[in-house]
Amino acid sequence: MKCWFINHFQTIKEKLTKVAYSVNNIPIRLTAERWSHIVENHEDIAGYSYEVLETIEKPTWVFTGDENELWAVKPISQKKAILVIYREFEDKKDGFIITAFFTKKIKKLLKRKILWQQQQ
User: What's the pLDDT tens digit per position in 7-16?
Assistant: First the structure.
């Protein structure tokens, strides 16, 4: 019985995890628990999980972060963008989203080191 429960729980957990592939072709996980935490802190992004994943897969820019993380940015208007902060581990071919939110500080972001930029 215990083994079935663990396996069943793992299956449910996997179904609740969404994956997007970064510009480096690394799978980046977004678990239901992480999404819940993000929305708890940034309520305005609640209906934008698809856009968050799309920002990982098709960003306009990817910047260096402050602590070995990456910042994927995708403008959604002239003054507003989605910023997704994530980690990726090339050696393990794995990664995860740390947080995501809307920002109006696009000009400030452009002062950071750009690691990748969408081709025009």
Answer: 544 444 455 7
Please provide the distance, in angstroms rounded to a whole number, between the alpha carbons at the two ends of the chain. Answer: 56
- Close Cβ partners of 7 (under 8 Å, ≥ 6 residues apart): none
What mean pLDDT do residues 102-115 have? 96
Tell me which residue range forms the domain holding 86: 18-117
Q: How far is CA 85 from the centre of its chain?
A: 6
pLDDT digits 0-9 by tens, 15-50: 578 999 999 999 999 999 999 999 999 999 999 999
Burial label, 88 (beta-carbon count in 10 A; 0-12, 13-18, 19+): buried
Q: How far apart are CA 100 and CA 84, in angstroms?
A: 4
Domains held by the chain: number: 1
> Would residue 110 count as lying in a domain?
yes
